[in-house]
Amino acid sequence: MQRVVLVTGSSRGIGAATAIQLGKQGYSVCVNYVSSAIAANRVVTIIQSFGSKAIAIKADVSNENEVVQLFKKIDNSLGPLTHLVNNAGILLPQMLVSEMTAERINKVLTTNVTSYFLCSREAIKRMKKGGSFVNVSSAASRLGSPSEYVDYAASKGAIDTLTTGLSLEVASQNIRVNCVRPGFIYTGMHADGGEPDRIERVETSIPLQRGGKPEEVAAAIAWLLSDEASYVTGTFVDLAGGK
Question: Which position among 27, 33, 149, 152 bears the catalytic label?
């Protein structure tokens, strides 16, 4: 059976590294993006260079109608989905909770949490013979990100709970749901938070004394998706240098 995977938010960072890693392993890959078609198509080109199928589809995965259309396009172009990486998310500029507006909080929660629920729902409908999910959470769900982005950390705490609950809900359908919790990874997301060099500031507090690479997270995601992890579900893999 052909392995077909959707990686949400995969035009850059951990998502792009994961899409490329899975393409290298022979998956047919849907590269989902919301703004940069150029970056998404660059990822597609790399995957195709391995001889694997890949398509780029623009969709805001926090929007229910766009998610439904996204999955229909995957059905028509690649076939039934067998694997899902819920990765799309946003990080807004560092801010104290005492200064946050409802608009900001709701934007973070809708983008980072609702999208995972919607994509999971549509994936489950298609996994009649089983499948595998990996949710991308964050070490922030454990650490809280005080004085930086508690809203982001809270959204990732919700993803941890989703992982636990959904893994139990669909286990009898031979669908596995696992989670990675990266932290201090060199991606453009830190610039979104207003501090591009954040890792350099905090790396001395990381036991391994360095930031991580997106490819290191991608390797863990690929293993959790694979048949090598066929007896693993409801499990969390922390990739935060020991933090």
Answer: 152
